[in-house]
Amino acid sequence: MPRFAANLSMMFNEVPFLERFARAAECGFTGVEFLFPYACEPADIAGALERHGLTQVLFNLPPGDWEAGERGLAALPGREAEFRASVDTALRYAEALGCTQLHAMAGLVAEGVSHQAMRETYLENLRFAARKLAEQGRTLLIEPINTRDMPGYFLNHQAEGHALLAELGEPNVKVQMDFYHTQIMDGDIWKTYQRYRDGVGHIQIAGVPERHEPDTGEVNYPWLFAQLDAAGYTGWLGCEYRPRGETKAGLDWLAEWR
């Protein structure tokens, strides 16, 4: 049976962040993910995980100035020192939270900078981060993100992500396949997954096109869940969606798979 992780940056927003762990556990989740933990002390999050028997599945490296619109540092020339510091910060949290996967956001296309220069910076930074994470047995993830939700993001297609993976040649780097982004940018979700499955480190889900619960929209998630199960996928499915209303009220879809 698929293992579902609640994304606490999007779900259970009816309560403050540190109270969302209890809500997730009460609703049957055994794992959680979120965008960023850095507004809280590591010990506070670790305590919430332990109290509620939850696994920390994933979170992102610091993305730069998120409030000012930055969406990652990894592909930005001139920000290498800041990126390297962000790796150290994320690893400090990962150790405290027992988290084995970290996502490095690429960033937005920089004005006046060539695609090749950004790509070279991206590869160099990912190689540095991968080797730092490998020292602790952790996996580095990169994620193609659709151009509608995040215009200007550097990495958009699964093919691009897996080409980078092949060029890097670092065994602990994988691609995050969010089925929501994949449907919007590439379509043919199941065949895309089959093509790249060996390089996929984590899967996320949301209804398309509105990014609500996975029981609505154009993607047949029950069929995909069954296919993943039959194919022996043992990773987590991160529920990175915006609930239509109150989070718990929209979880009937989960009861069928619990």
Mean pLDDT, nearest integer?
97
Strand order of the largest sheet: 1-2-3-4-5-6-7-8
**How many beta strands in the DSSP annotation?**
8
Taken in chain order, the helices and strands follow as EHEHEHEHEHEHHEHEH
Work out the oligomeric state of the chains in this entry. single chain
Q: How many strands, what sense, and barrel or not for the largest sheet?
A: 8 strands, parallel, barrel
> Helix tally?
9
Q: How helix-rich are the residues, as a percent range? A: 25-40%
Which structural class do the helices and strands define? alpha/beta
The rounded Rg comes to: 17 Å
Summary, kept brief:
The chain is an alpha/beta fold. It has helices spanning about 20-25, 40-50, 80-95, 115-135, 160-170, 180-185, 190-195, 220-230, 250-255, and strands at about 5, 30-35, 55-60, 100-105, 140, 175-180, 200-205, 235-240. Helix 1 (about 20-25) links the parallel strand 1 (about 5) and strand 2 (about 30-35).
Protein architecture, described:
- This protein is α/β, with parallel strands linked by helices.
- It has helices at 20-26, 42-51, 80-97, 115-134, 158-168, 179-185, 189-196, 221-230, 252-255; strands at 3-7, 31-33, 55-60, 101-103, 139-142, 173-178, 200-205, 236-239.
- Strands 1-2-3-4-5-6-7-8 form an 8-stranded parallel β-barrel, surrounded by 5 helices.
- Helix 2 (42-51) packs parallel to helix 3 (80-97) and helix 3 (80-97) packs parallel to helix 4.
- The longest helix is centred in the middle third of the chain and has 20 residues, at 115-134.
- The termini are close together.
- The mean pLDDT is 97.
